[in-house]
Amino acid sequence: MLRGNFPAKIDAQGRIKIPSAHRKILVATYGMEVFVTSVTGKNVLIYPLPEWEKLETRMIEPPKMLPGKLKFLRNTSYFGQMAKVDRQGRVLIPPHLREAAAVEGVDVDVIGQLNSLEVWNRSRFQKVLESDPYTDQDSVSLADIGI
Questions:
Q1: For residues 69 and 132, what is the distance between their CA atoms, to the nearest angstrom?
Q2: Which of the chain's ends, N or C, has fewer CB atoms near its CB within 10 Å?
């Protein structure tokens, strides 16, 4: 499982070095191929290819014309590209996604989301935490599904 938050930087060539704690699990469990994308452009999502393929399998099932599904596919295809973790543990983030997510030249956080990674501009993520705090209603929602 990919968990925890680790700071990182995007290098001048637009690559992020996956933090070693995440990289060890990513490569050992899933291999070197990843799909780099975003749903909103506000952050970068890095999916191990086997996990992305599972999601694609679910997305191809009916109903195919569901508006949310079409938007999800449109956006993840627009922002998305296949990539490989190189020998130094780096992954290239597409230029238009780096720009949209505002991750160039700033501190970023690489956050484990169990089967994927999120890369956030640190100050942008701090604003998300402040504007959308965890609430009692969130706890109730989780309790409803047994968590």
A1: 24
A2: C
